[in-house]
Structures are given as structure tokens and as C-alpha cells.
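Q: Make up one entry.
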Amino acid sequence: MKPVLRLINAEQLKWRRTFIPQLVWITPLFTLLLCALLMGGSYFQTGAYNWWYTMLLPGALTLVCSLAVQKDARLKYRSLLALPLCPQTLWSAKIAALTGWLLASCLLFFTGVSSSGWLFGPTIPLINSAAGSLLIFVTLLWQIPLCLFLAARLGLFAAVLVNISFNIAGVVTFDLGGLWNFMPYTIPFRLMCPVLHILPNGLPVPEGSPLRSTDTILRDVLASLAWFISLFHLTARRFRRQEAE
């Protein structure tokens, strides 16, 4: 356990001269300030959550993953692959460190949006807000190995462009049903409907809408975790092949 923690700490030490530590609090703070200026009042909490999970958090997460892999990619991972460790273990440490970043950012946003709700007037019950933040964290986990892989293969700009484009596509297609229910980009938007009663466009979910049903929450969470596990193993296998390149 201790060697794994040391690897995670080593990954976090690499962030010292990057923008990653600042983004953990800048992203939620910017979201809250933006919604306070543009909306405020009774629309503050719903607006903040809408901007958070549809655009700003996925964008920041892609940027953070890109920055986390950039230095190693420039050196063609020689500094990592020279270590007497399995490449998959090193890849796992990167993903674990970024999982910690995502969790910290979600916790800061939840604290901020809940505290600000007392100022503007709470419109989302605290238990729903906590559940929503937890589900956002869980259903975005799979983007970490994907964004690391995209950044390593395509570079920062392309990784951000691809991931944000698919997030926008997820907003458009989240309620089509069928196989779209298992597409990972649509899952967070669909889960926020029964938990926060917010559509991806920021409007409230109409009373009596089937989107308010909680029956599919467990299925959607398991689908997201399955995507995370699959992408974790696929990208770790691809990283292991760096030794042969």
C-alpha cells in the first residue's frame, strides 16, 4: 500500500509547476461566480449545477489530464519506463492522483453551492445536492483514463476539443433511449434529472416526466463504472506497449 501511495504523491509533486493545483479550486469558484453574476436569486443553484456538470468540470478535467501527462509525453515516458515498476502500476498512479483531484473539486463545488444557497435562497435540498455531487464524481471517473490517453496521443488542444464535443453531443442525445442509455456521455445528464430535477439545458424537469424516475440510477451508475474499468484496462495496456515503441 505504501509504495502505491508514494507513486501517487510523486505524481502530485509533478503538478507543482503546473496549473493543476490551482484548477482544483478555480474551477468551482469560477462556476459559482459566473452563476452569481448571470443568475443569482432562485436560479443560482440550478444554474451553477448546470454549468458545472455539462461544460466547466468536464473541460477542466480534460485540461488537468492533459497537463498531467504532458511532461512525461514530451520525454516519451523514458523517466517513467526506466523505473523498475510495471508500466500499468505507473498508469494506475496517474489515474488515482487525478481521481483525487476530481473528488476534491467536486467537494469544493458542493460546499460552495450549498453555502451560497443560504445567501440566494436554497432551491435544491442539501441531500439532493450531496447525491448529485457524488453522482457527478462517479459518472465522470471514466473520463480520466480516456482524457489521459487522448492527451498522450493527440495533444492538449485535440483532447479538450474531442471531449467537449462529445459532452455537447451527450446533452443533445441524453433522452433518446435504447443503446444511448449506455453511452457514457449521456449518463450524467440523465441522472441529474431525477436527483436535481434539472435538464441539461438548465430548465426544470416537468412534473410527471419519466425523466424524474429513479429506477435507472443504479443501472446508470454501474454502466459508468463499467466504462471506467474497461477504459482503465485498455489504456493501461496501451501504456505498457510504450516500452516497445
About this structure: The mean pLDDT is 86.
